[in-house]
Amino acid sequence: MSYIKFEKEQIVNLEYSLSREVIRTNRAGSYSSTTIVGCNTRKYHGLLVCPVDAFGGERYVLLSALDVTVVYNESSFNTGIRKYKGDYYSPKGHKYIEELEMETIPSRIYRVGGVRLRHERLLVHYEEQYLARLTILEASEPMKLQIRPFLAFRNVHQLTHANLCANTKVEFVENGIRSCMYEGFPDLYMQFSTNAEFIHVPDWYLGVEYTEEQKRGYDYSEDIFTPGFFELEAKQGDVIVFSASTKPEKTSGLKTKFTKNVTGKIPRNNYVNCIRNAAQQFIEKRHGKTLIIAGYPWFGSWGRDTFIALPGLALARKNNLELYREVLDTQVGRMENGLFPNMGGISNPAFNSVDAPLWFFWAVQQYIGAGGKDAAEKYWAPMKAVIGAFTGGTAYNIHMRDNGLIYADAPGKSLTWMDAVVNGVPVTQRKGYAIEINALWYNAVSIALEIAWEAKDKKFVKEFSPLPDLIKKSFHEVFWNPDRGYLADYVNDEEGKNFLVRPNMVIAVSLPFSALSEEEMKRVLDVADKELVTPRGLRTLSPSSPLYKGTYRGTQEERDSAYHNGTVWPWLFGPFCEGWLRVYGNQGVNKVRRLIYGLEEVMSEHGVSTISEIYDGDPPHAPNGAISQAWSVGEVLRIIDLLESKYSNL
After folding, report:
1. 3 state SS of 403
2. What residues have CB less than 8 Å from 23, skipping those under 6 apart?
3. CA–CA distance, 14 with 6 (Å, rounded to integer)
4. Contacts of 393 by beta carbon, 8 Å cutoff, 6+ apart
5. What pLDDT digit, counting tens, does each position of 95-139 carry?
6. Who contacts 399 (Cβ-Cβ below 8 Å, separation ≥6)?
């Protein structure tokens, strides 16, 4: 029996099935995503979504959907599904689904009358190509298949509508057609492994609605274009492969290509294999750069997320040091003034992150721990540049004060990971001394001194050797409150000390170099365990706070107000669990295992076989945000690796 499988009664219940989505990537910037029944509920959904260099490398939906209609005994059965105004679904192809599996590739089996049809799909690695394999499992007599592609040719963040500018013409190619709706886009080649007649009937399907966009307070209705449909003769036992690609394909090899791309895939037949598969999908290799995509379907590459996710994605389970170096080297090549890009593309990076450079030090530490012997040679120069920028002052008023701590205060900017902004105003600005920033700073200076010794940089060692002791002393004076038994979240000149119970203090416990004593670590963890830990991750704010928001719903303003004020983040299991094992050792293993392996429950939710970006703070902790998030997956994998490497005998 398959590990992840959906029963008929679940599939036909649209409230259930439309809340479960599938994401697959080609590891070169393209992805394919829809719900388990094939009904697009987001503007980000599409079968072939590709970066287009002509438009700055942003992603564009080329092939939105594919309707497969079985024509049998003079009756037609359309297996597609779309939503229109008034909760009207047409066609209602989900009712024909007999089985639905995800173990190796997404596969649906439809039964229509006397016909059973298997519909499988995949993306070809490092090519902008979507393949669908149709297998006629049962058919008592010959039949026809009508296959209608739906095209969008628009940015993933936008919607399109019927217009006179669209090029509705097609050009015939081997066993198919090519189409390009607008100037500047790549051609889309739609071809079959066998002869297919194309009937050119261009049309717009008006008013297709995306329920997830409606829930999120965005425009949610668009018109999608179809150039016509293909018609093929078929009988029992036939296997037909459809290709949608930005390059022409030799159709005689399509069946072999499909089979080859399935062979060797890690089966999603258990929890760890699911997240191992998910981990691979965040890697993007394009134009000589290797990036980690922060999350799907709408995130790009974020510096902070890259460094936090990288150890789990690249080292856990396979110790891929080559991939690790490629990612670090790409990020180092993008540095400016001691800062790494927080977000944005290659051509338009934003550097508004005070913590990304400090997480870089932590990522290098993980690299060294995994056997990376060239850290001093490769990364001492950028590490030294960060220390110099922070001590001397850099953009966004990021600077070290006389007490050795890092102070950051840029009006109207959120520089930490809690960076939501509503109407131009940061929700959780945390300006001044932020707890995790200074914990990371202490760790960064400490490891920098070790690497400086290895790099024989005597001048640096002499200048900065006194700094860790100064930071440690000031850290306690500024953040620690013995009566409360935990650390201030941030401190600044105007507000003083802010003691809202947030998870940022847990990072101070988990880092290789910590300014805290073991007793202080224990007290911090116990507070976090009592007020922040949930089965899905750590809350961003204690429910005891009047600012706490337990659900993530509504308009963008409402959601952003909750984003870091109670919403649960799975990636925070990483520092919490590592800290827990550090303090409690063998006695803490069962708790950590319970938390990390408890996430197995989400494998059939939201993003199927992966871990979501966020969850509600209130039970039952419903999933939200991006359906697959790099640091959620990466940190869970890292802790699993830690458990298996150090505590497997318990």
Report:
1. coil
2. 31, 32, 33, 281, 296, 297, 607, 610, 627, 628
3. 13
4. 399, 400
5. 999 999 998 999 999 999 889 999 999 999 999 999 999 999 999
6. 390, 391, 392, 393, 406, 407, 408
252 secondary structure, DSSP code: G
Residue 416 and residue 432 in contact, taking contact as beta carbons nearer than 8 Å? no
What single DSSP character describes residue 301? B
pLDDT above 80: residue 326? yes
* Closest residue by Cα to residue 557 from 446, 435, 364, 425: 425
Q: What is the DSSP string of 196-223?
A: -EEEEEEEEEEEEE-HHHHHTTS--EEE
Angle at 629 between CA 129 and CA 411, to 5 degrees: 120
Q: Give the strand pairing for 425-426 and 614-615.
A: unpaired
The pLDDT of residue 163:
97
| Domains, the chain, ordered by start | 5-262 (2.70.98), 271-646 (1.50.10.10)
Are the C-beta atoms of residues 31 and 123 closer than 8 Å to each other?
Answer: yes
Q: What is the DSSP string of 156-201?
A: TTS-----SSS----EEETTEEEE--STTSPPEEEEESS--EEEEE
Q: What is the pLDDT of residues 480-524, one digit of tens each?
A: 999 999 999 999 999 999 999 999 999 999 999 999 999 999 999
Average pLDDT over residues 173-181: 98
